[in-house]
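fyi for ur records
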Amino acid sequence: MHNSTTCHLTRNYGAGSDTLVESDLSNNFQVVYQYFNGRRVARTLTNNEVDLYIDDALGNTRRLSTLNGDDQSDFYPFGGERAYSNGNPTHYKFTGKERDSESGLDNFGLRYMTSSMGRFMSPDSIANDWELANPQTWNRYAYARNNPLIYVDPDGAAVELICTGGNSDQCAAQRQAALETLQDAVGNKQAAGSLYINEVKDGDNTRYFVGIKGDVGDFEKLSGGAKDLGELVGAKQVVEFGVTDKELPGNGAGQGAYTYKPGEIGNANPRVLVNPQAVANDDAKFQTIPMLRWKFGEGILHDLTTGIAAWHEFGHAWKMWQNINAAGNGVIPGARGIDPALNTASEALRWENRMRQEVYGPLGPNNAPRIQH
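which gave:
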């Protein structure tokens, strides 16, 4: 992307993106950024000077240590800056988001926020972070539930629990089965106990989403599975998730789990469907058919659980949304017609192997990784 003076080359971190390189409009590199554990830690300038970023607990850039002196700032709760010194200032400020020098707005990925008013410039979807019992969630322009000393707004996906057919009791049972699949997958009782079904009124309809009790950041620290699910729930796009005892429709027929791109079977968003019995049948094939065993590396091949199958499909859904965002924002040249299902297999393998490691321990001789889709 670019403004009037600077072009940005980005790469994806989860559902959002961070700037790797900045250049001028003549495509001359100006700044290269370095990251550790998903956070910006340093930048290198054209003269090979390396500057260090020092953040606080909320991700605010409190100090940029440079050869010309330190750029030091404090921030008011909603992002207003109190600059103490300006040795070589940075435009990554409140919670580490880029502040546009022309408008003063902070780029949160899917929306812009104005720190002078402490509000977003456009409303959030009703599907995200809305609770009838919490009035702070009613204002769709509000930042972090109007409590920015505790919460931050992520770059922003909600996981919607769907019904694949039946009466109200059968639909409730399907949603509960889907929730229990996620609870089993996150790895420990505390993480499982933090998940609940969040009912959201959307006009005359009621929608059901995966809710996380307490702070999402604390939840994500409980296990690798909790971290993956927290990131999926915490982004701003919806992934539909269902567990069924019927054969999967369309291209998923005969499979234990499948991810449908938007509109493929009448779905509005990427949809993940899992049939536990069919997953067990798939596992038996992997274990007994030599032509399927080659999909895994050397080592002991453990059971394909329903949770592992779901995580594999969440990887597909994650990459689908990256493709959709790239197409909608024109990030990739010519990407407005990009197929959401394009090149999602490698991400699915990454998600599956993270869950295999979560369930069975380190990948290797005692836990064969999946290496082919």
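Confidence is low (pLDDT under 50) at residues 10-16, 331-335. thats all i got for now
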